[in-house]
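Aim 2 progress update. The chain analyzed this quarter is reproduced below.
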Amino acid sequence: MPSAPRAALAGSLVLLALAGCRTTPPPAPIIGPGADAPWAEQEAALRKLDHYSLSGRVAVAAAGQGFSGSLRYRQQAQRADLAIDGPMGIGGVRVAISGEDISITTSRGESLDGNAARVELERRLGFELPARQLRWWLLGIPDSPQVGVVSDSDFVGPTAFEQDGWKVSVQSRAPAMGFSLPQRLTIEREGARLKLLVESWQP
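Predicted structure tokens:
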């Protein structure tokens, strides 16, 4: 066999061997009572959940304008980190939330804290982000169990609830981390709307 074809064949075999060694990433650990468990059990576990992350897509509409982009969110105890990558004027923004404190970093490396951060984020989104409630709303629950919810079943969780002038609607759910978690979610009020498609959940 000529050397060139022999080398090509050897290279192909190496690539096939490497491809055969690839493994799919392990699924996220099961930390909830199970996606089929009664919702009361799931909600009780969700309200104790202080570490989780998600990634997906977001579409934002406000004042007759809008944009879409990728979304990453990570909750760690009382701190949350949110990243939206899309047009947003100059390409995206990183948001850090700790209690009532908020700071942002733009894709140009500009950093703002406190009220200046809130004003700039509102300018980019077209509305004030409900930062304090977001950690709960992303899970498909209000930040207080006393808030009334609409639900089709005792097993699947709320399909909608209203809080602080916002309406949160869960269009679909999927099993993740031992829960039935939102896959498609809309957060809206008059003149403002966020639509989220969650592609993955991780603890």
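The longest helix spans residues 3-21. Residues 3-22 have pLDDT under 50 and may be disordered. These observations will guide the mutagenesis experiments scheduled for the next reporting period.
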